[in-house]
Amino acid sequence: MEKKENNLMEKIVSLCKRRGFIFPGSEIYGGLAGTYDWGHFGVALKNNIKQSWWKKFVDNRRDMYGIDAAILMNSKVWEATGHVANFADSLDGKQFNTMLKTEVGAKKEEVAVSYLRPETAQGMFVNFKNTVDAFHPKLPFGMAQIGKVFRNEIAPRDFLFRQREFEQMEVEYFTKEEDWGKYFEYWKGEMLDWMEEVGIDMSKIHELEIPDKDRAHYSSRTIDFEFEYPFGQKELFGLAYRTDFDLKNHKLDYIDEEKGDKIIPHVIEPTFGVDRAALALLLSAYCEDEKGGEVRAYLKFKPSIAPVICAVSPLLKNKPELVEYANTKIFAPLKAEFGRVIWDDNGNIGKRYRRQDEIGTPFCIVVDFDTLTDDTVTVRDRDTGEQERIKIENLKNYIREKI
Ligand code: GAP
């Protein structure tokens, strides 16, 4: 297997459009810079990324509380956190605030300035008290959120890398001040584990300690996890020690129920961009090799992340007995069980394999004439191209074990 770095971004962008992963936003009107629309396979990829994250960081833990806060927030939130004063980038020597401003309310006297949130984090901080009152968690505990954020980036570029509308997956982990170093190290490990679990090429990940002058205004220590993109080694995800900056600014605190002490917890924040995760996964998965004298492009996604887990085909589409069998005995039950299953009977079998390889489908199941007599099907492996015959009764388990 050989990876081609030449024009890799062009190849990925074109594959994403051609195969229904990701389209330029508002394309028929000339586009809107920094926005992308996700097609059927792209949505599936993104959902798998988010589900895997939520499972690891929320469902599999006992100390995490999920939240889905409103994107529109009272502008006092952003005044209190310093975003109105500091969330800026330089443009022609001047500071330019990159929060997207909007107006809420219809009647003139009721109109209020609001901002589309530039990070999901504040949706968690402003619900810190609600969460503590509802669930009575003991320190350390965390809050987690996945959602859209908006930034009026001066120069959106590099496909999904720098957009004006994107999604974040963030944890705010609340600890006692003296424990911050311990949990910073702990979360570094958790972040690396997840990256490996979803299938990011770990040989392309590098940790960068961000120097004082370059850190966000709220952070006392930040590590960026950088990825080697074709356009350079740049930030993928970040880990920040936000101290008690946010809770203090929102005038929030925590009462230790055993001791009765009032303290302001300190915060460790692992943050992940969903879109950069998708980009890193596409770049990690893209491979080219030669099959039957032709160059084949395929996405080596892990089965848990692949938009389609398996494709089902009758060997010949003009043989009703094969079509009927494939449809009722294979496709329908697998579709009901796994959802991410597609029917593909277009063109010859070689073409179908190439099409599935290109979108990263790990297994292609084919019903042929032997199936009708021995109730077995061929299952072809995307990466090796090898086929094995599997008894139909074992098919669901075979797939389940790989997810
Ligand atoms: N709450 C902390 C925070 O928002 P950030 O480093 O500004 O930190 C977090 O953003 C993550 O969001 C980044 O690590 C990156 O994955 C993603 N991200 C940031 N800006 C982005 C943009 N313009 N387009 C796509 N993803 C972006």
Helix/strand layout:
Layout: H1 8-18, E1 22-24, E2 36-38, H2 40-59, E3 64-66, E4 72-74, H3 75-80, H4 83-86, E5 88-91, E6 94-97, E7 100-104, E8 112-116, H5 121-125, H6 128-135, E9 141-150, E10 165-175, H7 180-198, E11 205-209, E12 221-229, E13 232-243, H8 245-249, E14 254-255, E15 262-263, E16 266-273, H9 274-285, E17 286-291, E18 294-299, E19 310-314, H10 320-338, E20 341-343, H11 349-359, E21 363-367, H12 369-374, E22 376-381, E23 387-391, H13 392-402
Parallel strand pairs: 3-9, 19-20, 19-21
Antiparallel strand pairs: 1-2, 4-8, 5-6, 7-8, 9-10, 10-16, 11-12, 12-13, 13-16, 14-15, 17-18, 21-22, 22-23
Bound molecules: glycyl-adenosine-5'-phosphate.
The site of glycyl-adenosine-5'-phosphate (GAP) has 17 residues, from β10, β13, β16 and α9.
Protein name: Glycine--tRNA ligase
Pfam families: HGTP_anticodon, tRNA-synt_2b
GO cellular component, one term: cytoplasm
